[in-house]
Structure formats: structure tokens, C-alpha cells
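Hey,

The postdoc asked me to send both predictions to you directly instead of through the lab channel. I've kept everything plain text so nothing gets mangled by the mail client. Protein one:
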Amino acid sequence: DYVELNTSAAFAKLCLGMPSDKSPGVALYTDHRAMHNESRYLLWTTRQREYLAGRGTTFAAEGYDYLIHHQFSGPAVELIDKIAEREFDAVMPPKLAVLDRYGNTASTSHFVVLHDALRQGLIAPGSKVLLVPAASGVVAGFLSVTIGDLRV
């Protein structure tokens, strides 16, 4: 239906991949405390609220059937949903997740969740799904898709 992604350089330094200072190879250095906070989570809600207002609609009016967050932390996703409910003044749709079975599958997480839900028959054709990426402090956004006759 639509895709909106934005980069926020202010958060880029919070997750860095570089040569390890302790062993051969590469390492990921992440400041989790600074990265996982309300100001970063508001990147999604603020931008989507503005986007929808520009289209003359609201989050509730979009009628999402499911919500798929980046699969990085169960407690953080719960916090994000509470913030989203406050910011959108709407109840969040049911979440689809695989974090408990597969862990954080990085940039593929939305597609792993989608594949898993389709395989289980949880998503019917015509369902409207909102995907909310959150890539290591750099990219935030939202993707709205209406599922066609997909089969796995």
C-alpha cells in the first residue's frame, strides 16, 4: 500500500560494526540503553501520524489486521506498542512474532515473521499488515501491505 523509511543520523553511532578489539574478525558494538528509548521509538509514530494526516486519515482508520515489529526484544516491543497507542490514540492490532523461536533475525525479521504466519495459515488473503522496521538506530519507518493470495 505504501512504504515510508527515514534515516536518523543522530542514532547512527549507537550501533557500530567494525573490526573487533578483542578477537579476529568483526564485532557489533551497541549502546542498548541509548538506542532503546522513547525518543527513538517516536521516530516511527511521529512520522506515520504525519504521513497519515497528509493523506487525510488516521492510524485507526487504516484498519490494520496485524502488526509486525522488528524482532529484537519482546519487552521493548511491548513498550513501543504502549507508546504507539498513546501517540496514535488507537489500540494496536495483534502482533505477529517469532522472536521466541528464532531470536533476532536482523534485517530479515519481518519476512521471517510473514513467512511463518503464512505457513501457519494465520494471515488470510486481504489482510492488511503493518511492518515497522527499526534498523540499529539508523532507519525507522513503516510499510503497509495488503496480502494477496500468497501461499507457503
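Protein two:
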Amino acid sequence: ANSHFIGEHVAREHGVPADRLAVIPRGVDLDRFDPARINQRAVQTLRAKWRVEPEQILILLPARLTRWKGQEHAIAALALIADQTSNAVLVCAGDAQGRSDYAETLRTKAEAAGIALRLPGHVEDMATAYAAADLVLNPSIEPEAFGRSAAEAQALGRPVIVADHGGAREVVEHAVTGWRAPPG
């Protein structure tokens, strides 16, 4: 299993005995996600492409656009602290996979809340995207097997906030390597 969360799920749901299970956490390519290898010009170019000024705070939510990944919750959370985040831009980097209605819902909700939102679609160079971010979010409303985006962001020295469930619990030590918040 790629996390204790999934190992426990497999044992519980499929009756697999503990001696037949091994947890091998999904890793992060520390060469690819090495801060020293990031091209700072590429970071600046990406921020400019996403229309994020150097003085603005870039909050990155890397996930395909689907409700259970929590993009709507990110918008709602930013709206709650809008007076403190007026200089922030939320970038939901991920493919809509045909969910153009959902992408439009996100745009509408962000506009109504006064949140600057960018939906750049699929991003090939995630190392540069993480390096461009000031904060990385993983607010999934359902537990995920492993918190890959949190692990990759942390490898690049970026602070993370994750939903406190699933494999993300094993990746983020609350108030030490990032923050965990109740799902939703």
C-alpha cells in the first residue's frame, strides 16, 4: 500500500491479513523537486503567464478540476479571510477533463467572493509551479491515498495546508511541516 491509510483500508475492506501487507509510501523525485535545480527565470515566466505580479501571493491548488478535490472550499476559505488575502491569487492548476461547467462554477464563485482565480489547465512542469507558489493547498473533501502534491511542495520548501484525512495525514505533520485543517 502507498500509505498506512490505504493499508488499513485494504485490510478492513478486503480482509487482507497484516502479515500480507506492506506500506511503501509513494516517493518524491528529489532531483526533480530540488530547489537548487529550479530555474528562477522559468518561475518568473510562469507567474507572468498566470498573471500573478511579483508582489502578489500565489496560492496553488494542484489537482484536476473536480468537486472532490476541494477547489470550491478553497475559494470559500479565501473569502472568509478576504481582508487578509486581497493581494492573493488562487491558481487551480489542473485539467478540467471535460468539466467546463465546473470550471465556470469556480469562476463565478471566485468572482462573487472577490477572489482572483486562475485556471491554467494541465501544468507539465509541476516543480516550477510549486516553486512559483507561496502556499500550496490540498483541500480534498474525500480522503486520498497519498498526499503527493503536499510531499512535492514540501520537497521544494513550500508551505502546505491539507485536509486532515487520508494519506495527507502521513505527509504533513501539523504545525511542523505544514498545516492540517478539517475537511470542508
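Summary for protein two, as requested: The chain is about 35% helix and 15% strand.

Thanks,
C.
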